[in-house]
Q: What sequence folds into this?
């Protein structure tokens, strides 16, 4: 199994396991303001039988995602089936044919297998199999005066703390006995994938799933690494949404652990880190949908591949949209971190049109420099220097869109408490229409995105006047050192320490002040995390020059920046590192310096072009076309040569 680089969108952990089903589009042309997300729209009618492809007549090759196992070895893949009743018989037959069935959810129209390209192709010949694609991973994204900024204090003073409502937090679990959550955890579950290649379950029972007892306990031994709790992100997010010091302190909490522990220093940058598999997320969303609880919203502070337009039409986006629509039909919103890459778009699955995509602002009503932004976003909310709960009954301060997202999740619990008969889609629109408008430029087009304001939404306060924003990174592609940075990760989800996905971290810990909750909290030190964004140099370098930069101490670009670029490439490319390892400076250097075969030459050209993109140049159309050739199971020599030539033209 090949892992994508763990680009942690501050899940919020916008834990970003990274991958998406399609290429990131050119970041320059962004969607026009008129093409906005519409969580209120009804899902389109299902296709008629005449429109739906017949699995029996479908070409088996077309059912398998491009690139699965094309370079040898086994792949972990989700096998979509035509009906839930087919899961058991197809799994039994697959196992008899030596395909390793690693997950067989009950009453679900899919299973997870590990197999070679040949084995997956054989499996695709079964008419009961609709499609086969990678079981992609996600990582956690990056949490004050923020409550007063959004008017939550006024709503609390009016007697609305969200009592009787529930929020569901799909994250890294929760500290079940933390004072911030006393008597308000109403349900727990765990869906945690495993693999023989160093991926371990974080469920207390050690299995792939658990729905009884303290199933989401963030204090299990597998959450610990050298005395540091890797699973602190979920408690922090839950605390912001509905903890004692959170937005809806009277609401109940459904805590769902969706991450697994990955013991792979090459992928993590540390001995271990956390990833969430698509299969785990899908089970968790269905679990929440089927609960008999008055759930207002689901919080997903995590993310994957970057998109600058709606991803509904992609395979991965369509799967999540169906889940989000099913929740919305039950009056449950899905609130997702936009990501922290300073990108004019969002990370998946915030790009799904029926998600509520959330960016981060600071306490001076300014867009956080590292926050993603643009027409895909629904709301901004405070995400800078947010104090909240973490395991061992303590609190710490984090920043990121992961911290902004639960502000909106908690706000929807307050909205549903105040207006229980209003459809959730209308409550979302009310938050958007009463939010303080942030007006800013995206690629020459003016965009307006509201900042959460509960005072205007619930207490009758007037909508605040617009604020003109000018968010921009430094001219050298770096972020202002004085600006608060997402911590603990560089993406939209929570990044557990010490598995910091950010490209660099200072060796000087910053002590946080002692905080008193109902007990005295000990002082906690956290490493500051650098913000990982695309550069602005817009300078094209050749493969030879990039190899010089990647060779330690030989170039002018810092190792931290280069590491960041490789992480961004891993979120935008389907070749790196799915087919070809390029998640570290050493592996990337070898890709550029060792093009012996046709495929290797194309890999070198592709990596050169992706590095130029990360450095600030625009244009990914040629990259997408060339990667399609590289992902083909049997590309001709002529096709590989032409694709390589086309890419090399773009780097001159």
A:
């Amino acid at each position: 199994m090949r892992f994508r680089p763990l680009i942690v969108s501050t899940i919020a952990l916008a834990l970003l396991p990274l991958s998406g089903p399609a290429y990131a589009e050119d970041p320059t042309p962004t969607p026009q303001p008129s093409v906005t997300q519409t969580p209120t729209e009804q899902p389109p009618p299902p296709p008629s039988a005449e429109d739906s492809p017949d699995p029996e007549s479908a070409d088996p090759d077309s059912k398998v995602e491009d690139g699965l196992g094309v370079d040898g070895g086994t792949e972990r893949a989700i096998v979509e089936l035509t009906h839930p009743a087919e899961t058991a018989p197809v799994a039994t037959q697959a196992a008899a044919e030596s395909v390793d069935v690693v997950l067989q959810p009950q009453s679900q129209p899919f299973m997870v297998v590990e197999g070679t390209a040949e084995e997956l192709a054989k499996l695709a010949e079964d008419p009961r199999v609709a499609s086969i694609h990678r079981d992609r991973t996600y990582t956690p994204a990056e949490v004050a005066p923020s409550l007063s900024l959004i008017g939550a204090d006024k709503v609390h003073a009016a007697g609305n703390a969200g009592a009787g409502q529930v929020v569901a937090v799909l994250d890294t679990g929760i500290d079940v006995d933390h004072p911030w959550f006393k008597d308000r955890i109403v349900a727990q579950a765990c869906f945690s994938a495993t693999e023989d290649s160093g991926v371990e379950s974080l469920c207390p029972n050690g299995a792939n799933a658990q729905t009884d007892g303290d199933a989401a306990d963030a204090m299990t031994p597998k959450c610990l690494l050298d005395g540091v709790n890797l699973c602190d992100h979920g408690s922090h997010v839950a605390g912001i949404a509905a903890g004692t010091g959170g937005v809806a302190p009277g609401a109940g909490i459904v805590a769902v652990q969706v991450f697994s522990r990955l013991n792979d220093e090459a992928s993590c940058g540390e001995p271990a880190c956390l990833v969430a598999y698509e299969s785990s997320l899908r089970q968790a969303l269905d679990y929440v949908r089927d609960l008999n609880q008055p759930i207002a919203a689901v919080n997903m502070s995590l993310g994957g591949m970057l998109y600058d337009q709606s991803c509904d039409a992609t395979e991965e986006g369509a799967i999540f949209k169906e889940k989000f629509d099913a929740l919305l039909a039950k009056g449950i919103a899905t609130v997702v971190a936009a990501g922290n890459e300073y990108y004019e778009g969002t990370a998946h699955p915030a790009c799904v049109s029926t998600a509520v995509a959330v960016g981060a602002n600071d306490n001076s009503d300014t867009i956080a420099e590292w926050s993603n932004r643009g027409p895909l976003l629904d709301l901004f909310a405070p995400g800078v220097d947010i104090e909240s709960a973490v395991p061992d009954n303590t609190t710490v301060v984090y920043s990121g869109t992961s911290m902004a997202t639960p502000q909106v999740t908690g706000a929807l619990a307050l909205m549903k408490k105040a207006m229980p008969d209003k459809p959730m889609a209308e409550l979302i629109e009310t938050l958007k229409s009463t939010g303080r408008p942030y007006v800013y430029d995206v690629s020459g087009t003016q965009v307006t995105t509201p900042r959460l304001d509960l005072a205007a939404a619930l207490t009758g306060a007037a909508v605040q006047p617009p604020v003109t924003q000018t968010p921009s990174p430094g001219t050298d592609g770096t972020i202002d050192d004085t600006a608060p940075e997402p911590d603990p990760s560089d993406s939209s989800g929570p990044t557990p320490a010490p598995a910091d996905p950010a490209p660099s971290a200072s060796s000087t810990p910053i002590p946080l002040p002692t905080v008193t909750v109902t007990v005295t909290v000990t002082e906690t030190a956290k490493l500051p995390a650098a913000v990982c964004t695309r550069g602005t140099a817009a300078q094209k370098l050749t493969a030879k020059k990039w190899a010089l930069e990647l060779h330690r101490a030989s170039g002018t670009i810092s190792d931290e920046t280069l590491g960041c670029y490789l992480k961004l490439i891993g979120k935008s490319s389907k070749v790196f590192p799915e087919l070809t390892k390029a998640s570290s400076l050493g592996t990337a250097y070898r890709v550029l310096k060792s093009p012996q075969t046709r495929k290797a030459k194309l890999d070198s050209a592709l990596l050169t072009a992706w590095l130029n993109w990360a450095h600030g140049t625009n244009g990914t159309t040629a990259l997408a076309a060339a990667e399609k050739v590289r992902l083909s199971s049997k590309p001709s020599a002529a096709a590989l040569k032409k694709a390589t030539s086309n890419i090399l033209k773009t780097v001159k």
Observations:
- The two ends are 35 Å apart (CA to CA).
- The first strand starts at residue 75 and ends at 81.
- The first helix runs from residue 60 to 63.
